[in-house]
Design the sequence.
């Protein structure tokens, strides 16, 4: 996860030409979105598995 956030920050800084503050904010957004998506997916899978079978 940290590698993805680091690559996102470097990409945003070098390719997009943004400041490091903007780049770190972008990396934080990518990280939180990824973690949130994983948590939601786990919740949905756990809820779907209860009544199946």
Sequence:
């Amino acid at each position: 996860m940290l590698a993805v956030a680091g690559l996102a920050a470097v990409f945003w800084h070098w390719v997009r030409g943004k400041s490091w503050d903007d780049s770190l904010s972008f990396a934080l957004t990518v990280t939180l979105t990824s973690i949130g998506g994983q948590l939601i997916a786990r919740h949905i899978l756990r809820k779907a598995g209860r009544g199946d079978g």
Observations:
- DSSP finds two helices and no strands in the chain.
- The longest helix spans residues 20-50.
